[in-house]
């Protein structure tokens, strides 16, 4: 039987089994502890998220708010939520739900997880006051999916509700994959996860239909021995081997510029503000807030 708390959040079907490329997310869940910034939020991100949330919603609106979390990011579940708030985390991957969701510690009144597709949420209209997510849109495969999500987020948000997301944005002048790999060979690199995201973005800029297996193939062709990359960069082999989750993976990521992203979320959402963290690649990782239009 559905709990009254879940019913209050507007969930109408907890048994939804979306069609998703599960194998990549299974591997991603298994290596979650090896993933670092900017692919996971750090304390600076948490502060920027909370500033964006409290700037977008008055304290009276946030008190008792029903929050939808896109994905199961523990760092977002553990923000300074009011004691009387409720949170529903939604992810299309069962492995992510089972492995990562328990890591969060939600301080509010009630939280639950839902296996469903963001493009067709099994939630009632106006079920939520706030939607938050960390890099969530980049897990979508194409611009059409962004538009479908915008319409669905609009539907499940209450009038005046807000959307707060960390975005992964292409730079105004996208890099070429060869440039990114050349930086590694010259020793001009920072942390591995920032480098990995640069490579993924560069390949996407060259070929929007590239899947993760294509990114793995490009990486392996340049560095067939991970020890070579470790010697050049000082990265740990454990970090470098997180790229192996891309091997044979048919899933795709997507990246767009800030102006394009704002356009894709309009007219359902008006842009409010954005803040950029100061860590490596932070200039491509703004935390942006949007308000549901009337």
Explained architecture:
- There is one protein chain.
- The chain is α/β, with parallel strands linked by helices and 294 residues long.
- It has helices spanning 4-8, 22-30, 43-56, 59-62, 74-77, 94-99, 143-156, 177-185, 192-206, 212-222, 226-233, 237-240, 258-265; strands at 66-70, 86-91, 110-115, 128-134, 157-166, 269-275, 287-292.
- The chain is globular and about 55 Å long.
Uncertain segments are 1-20
Alpha-carbon distance between the two ends: 35 Å
Biggest sheet features: 7 strands, mixed
- Sheet-strand content, in percent, reads 15-25%
CATH architectural grouping of the largest domain: 3-Layer(aba) Sandwich
Indicate the overall shape: globular
Number of strand elements: 7
Structural class: alpha/beta
Query: What is the CATH superfamily label of the largest domain?
Result: Vaccinia Virus protein VP39
How many discrete domains? 2
**Under the CATH scheme, which class of the largest domain?**
Alpha Beta
Radius of gyration: 19 Å
Instruction: Sketch the topology as an H/E string, one letter per element.
Output: HHHHEHEHEEHEHHHHHHEE
CATH topology of the largest domain: Rossmann fold
Number of helices: 13
Give the helix proportion (percent range): 25-40%
**What is the averaged pLDDT score?**
91
Main sheet: which strands, in order across? 3-2-1-4-5-7-6
């Amino acid at each position: 039987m559905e709990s009254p708390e879940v019913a209050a959040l507007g969930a109408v079907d907890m048994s939804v089994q979306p069609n998703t490329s599960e194998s990549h997310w299974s591997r991603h869940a298994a290596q979650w502890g090896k993933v670092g910034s900017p692919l996971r939020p750090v304390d600076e991100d948490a502060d920027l998220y909370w500033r964006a949330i409290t700037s977008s919603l008055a304290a009276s609106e946030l008190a008792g708010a029903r929050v939808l979390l896109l994905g199961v990011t523990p760092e977002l579940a553990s923000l300074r939520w009011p004691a009387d708030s409720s949170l529903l985390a939604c992810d299309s991957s069962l492995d992510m739900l089972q492995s990562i969701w328990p890591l969060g510690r939600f301080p509010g009144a009630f939280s639950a997880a839902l296996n469903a597709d963001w493009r067709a949420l099994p939630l009632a209209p106006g079920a939520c006051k706030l939607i938050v997510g960390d890099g969530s849109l980049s897990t979508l495969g194409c611009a059409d999916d962004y538009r479908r999500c915008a319409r669905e987020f609009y539907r499940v948000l209450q009038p005046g509700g807000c959307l707060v997301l960390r975005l992964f944005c292409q730079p105004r002048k996208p890099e070429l994959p060869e440039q990114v790999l050349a930086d590694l060979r010259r020793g001009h690199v920072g942390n591995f996860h920032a480098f990995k995201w640069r490579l993924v973005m560069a390949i996407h800029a060259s070929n929007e239909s590239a899947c993760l297996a294509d990114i793995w193939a490009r990486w392996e062709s340049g560095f067939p021995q991970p020890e070579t990359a470790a010697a050049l960069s000082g990265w740990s082999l454990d970090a470098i081997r997180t790229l192996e989750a891309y091997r044979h993976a048919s899933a795709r990521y997507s990246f767009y510029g800030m102006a394009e992203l704002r356009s894709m979320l309009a007219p359902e959402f008006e842009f409010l503000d954005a803040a950029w963290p100061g860590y490596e690649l932070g200039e491509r990782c703004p935390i942006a807030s949007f308000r549901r239009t009337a």
